[in-house]
Design goal:
Keywords: Repeat. It comes from Nesterenkonia salmonea. This is PRD domain-containing protein. The chain is α/β, with parallel strands linked by helices. The protein has 6 domains: 66 residues, Winged helix-like DNA-binding domain superfamily/Winged helix DNA-binding domain (Arc Repressor Mutant, subunit A); 95 residues, Winged helix-like DNA-binding domain superfamily/Winged helix DNA-binding domain (Arc Repressor Mutant, subunit A), CATH 1.10.10; 101 residues; 101 residues, PTS-regulatory domain, PRD (Orthogonal Bundle), CATH 1.10.1790.10; 73 residues, Rossmann fold, CATH 3.40.50.2300; 149 residues, 3-Layer(aba) Sandwich (Mannitol-specific EII, Chain A). The protein has 26 helices and 15 strands. It has a 4-stranded parallel sheet with strand order 9-8-10-11, with helices on one face. The protein has a 4-stranded mixed sheet with strand order 12-14-15-13. The protein has a 3-stranded antiparallel sheet with strand order 3-5-4. A hairpin with a 2-residue loop joins strand 14 and strand 15. It is globular.
Length: 634
């Protein structure tokens, strides 16, 4: 487990403004008293300056100071020792001696034995094994499997955002690589790949460069790859030649053909997409067919407009690369997974649906990072259709004097035309205010009863005036979204489907607990609960730091009901901790409401103040529903 003070640091760095001790404690599954201790440790490390400010509102980070602590070692922890042990095992072809290792690390032999248990857990499910002969322990497995283990250590270091090069080098032991060489290597690789006719995925290229550095370091230790599982193609040879040049130039190592072809395969399937006709990749007809059917199903199930030829081709090419990565067991990480999940839950859900069908038909097991890349394809497609939904209508009220109203309209069109469309102009001094039905009213005269739609403006707009209009438009959009949510929620809660306190259990147990009242109501059957658990196993439904929304992928409930559980102490849910769990049982007839409820419920529970209010006051079903409505109304 990562050091708790660093987890606190990461939470504070991600937050905007103050964060309460209770909120941090809930996220970590500890007490507020422990949080105070972790903050004290962080401030002790930052002396004489203060990394974390304390106050009546909680804690707030000095971002520059706190970010600077991330690269510093805090002392040996169990995770540090395990990583150190793994590095020794990876570097010792004849194994390590437990007695000598314990003496060198100044710990007992029993501690080393305990750490070896954790090493076994770390390599479980891989092609690596620990072989024991008396006090000697050896790591057994081929070179490619050992490199994947090095990569896994690096990814553990990066999981919570601590991706500075000093920490990575310490964790995975890249002793032969100068940390200053990474940036120029990346810049030249990206530039030259672009010149050769590739689009470069900047999100994935850093991860690929880490693999290149690991390869260069292992080759420097005399541990080169002798071959790969993929026969080199013309493109692979092209990229291999480029890597041969750059690894020697920047890392000072010449790697062999086995490594070059393996690394070229990683780049071609993870970090680049051909953009010229000469580099066009042929699609596997079976993969294309599977993707087409998965997208068709998701488009119909979630009522989203994504079934387009250009989207299908791009996604099919991505899945084809994904199949190659699976063959190499070289999964691609996505640093935006957490933010995508929290900010675009519906897009992520569509991606889960596509990934589920693709995985079933192609026999792939896809994690959140791979699903997030599919979500990026889905989001990019939907963004093209989004403008008409995002534009608000507006009426300008500007009593006529020469062309003032025309100047006002022209300025608004230029500054806000992508988000606000002026559909009417009133030039009377006393317009019929009650007849104005647009989303916004932009007026140069005082309305009789100002409301949230109204923005009072001077006849000549300044930059600050356009900012006020943009802010009012954002508030209005949120108000309209939440109004839809409020109208939907009133129909879908049931008093018998509210459980507080929610018993502590693993995800499957909680889902069964929340599903039981819905089975009693005749809304769902046990099969629905099983499918909700299967959906949860595929990708965690903890979309915020407070809320999980388990559900089945298919909307087969007899009618739509939400079963709500509130935990007094936070529950572990996937890699997160939550206090609210809402089991969603949707019927096919309500599929249009799914997007509204799903996205806006996540939005409400993404606000810490709202979460704390619901925890404090929502002690029973009636109070919870009243407080949720009040929170939505703002």
């Amino acid at each position: 487990m990562r050091r708790r003070p660093e987890k606190v640091a990461n939470l504070l760095l991600r937050a905007e403004g103050w964060v309460t001790a209770g909120s941090i404690a809930d996220s970590l599954g500890v007490t507020p008293r422990s949080v105070r201790s972790y903050v004290s440790q962080l401030n002790a490390r930052s002396t004489p300056v203060t990394a974390v400010e304390s106050g009546p509102l909680g804690y707030r980070a000095d971002r520059a100071v706190l970010a600077g602590l991330r690269g510093e070692a805090e002392g040996e922890t169990p995770q540090d020792r395990v990583h150190s042990l793994v590095r020794e095992l990876l570097g010792a072809s004849s194994g390590i001696d437990i007695h000598r290792t314990a003496a060198r690390l100044h710990v007992s032999e029993a501690t080393i034995e305990s750490d070896l248990v954790r090493v076994r857990d770390l390599i479980a499910g891989t092609e690596l094994k620990l072989r024991r002969s008396g006090p000697r322990v050896m790591l057994v497995g081929d070179e490619l499997a050992q490199r994947r283990l090095v990569s896994k250590l690096a990814h553990e270091e990066m999981d919570d955002g601590f991706a500075d090069m000093a920490s990575l080098r310490r964790t995975i032991g890249l002793e032969s690589i100068d940390p200053k060489s990474f940036s120029p290597f990346k810049q030249e690789l990206t530039t030259r790949l672009g010149e050769q006719g590739f689009y470069v995925n900047e999100l994935a290229v850093s991860d690929v460069i880490l693999h290149v550095a690991i390869a260069a370091d292992r080759v420097a230790q005399g541990r080169a790859l002798t071959g790969t599982h993929v026969d080199p193609s013309a493109q692979q040879r092209q990229v291999a030649e480029l890597l041969d040049d750059l690894t020697l130039k920047h890392f000072g190592t010449r790697v062999g053909l086995g490594d070059l072809h393996h690394l070229a395969s990683l780049i071609l399937t993870r970090a680049v997409t051909p953009k010229g006709e000469a580099l066009e990749v042929a699609l596997d007809p079976h993969i294309e067919s599977v993707v087409r059917e998965a997208v068709r199903h998701a488009a119909e199930e979630y009522l989203v407009d994504i079934f387009h030829d250009d989207f299908l081709r791009r996604l099919s090419l991505h899945v084809q690369n994904l199949v190659h990565r699976a063959r190499e067991q070289a999964w691609s990480r996505n640093p935006l997974t957490r933010s995508l999940k929290a900010a675009y839950p519906m897009v992520f859900e569509v991606a889960v649906s596509i990934a589920s069908q693709v995985g079933d038909h192609l026999r792939l097991s896809l994690g959140d990072d791979e699903i997030a890349y599919i979500a990026m394809h889905v989001g990019g497609r939907l963004e093209r259709n989004r403008r008409s939904d995002a534009v608000l209508t507006a009426t300008i009220v500007c009593p006529g004097y020469y062309e003032l109203h025309e100047l006002l309209r022209s300025r608004i069109d230029r500054s806000l035309g992508s988000s606000v469309e002026v559909t009417a102009v009133e030039t009377e001094m006393s317009p019929d205010w009650s007849a104005i039905t647009t989303d916004l009213v932009l007026t140069t005269i005082d309305p009789p009863v100002p409301d949230e739609r109204t923005v009072l403006l001077p006849p000549f707009l300044t930059d600050s005036d356009t900012e006020r209009i943009a802010a009012a438009a954002a508030r209005r959009r949120r108000s309209l979204r939440l109004a839809r949510l409020r109208a939907e929620l009133e129909h879908y809660f049931h008093p018998s489907a509210f459980i507080r306190p929610l018993p502590a259990a693993k995800e499957a147990g909680v889902i069964r607990t929340l599903g039981a009242p819905l089975v009693e109501l005749g809304v769902i059957d046990e099969d629905y609960i099983d499918r909700a658990i299967a959906r949860e196993e595929m990708s965690s439904t903890a979309f915020t730091d407070a809320l999980a929304v388990p559900h089945a992928l298919k909307m087969t409930a007899g009618r739509t009901v939400l079963s709500v559980g509130v935990a007094e102490s936070s529950l572990r849910w996937g890699d997160s901790r939550v206090q609210f769990v809402v089991l969603v049982a949707f019927s096919e007839e309500d599929r249009e409401a799914f997007q509204t409820i799903f996205e806006q419920l996540v939005e409400v529970f993404n606000e810490r103040d709202s979460v704390q209010r619901l925890l404090r006051r929502g002690t029973n079903f009636t109070d919870f529903l009243d407080e949720l409505t009040a929170v939505i109304d703002g």
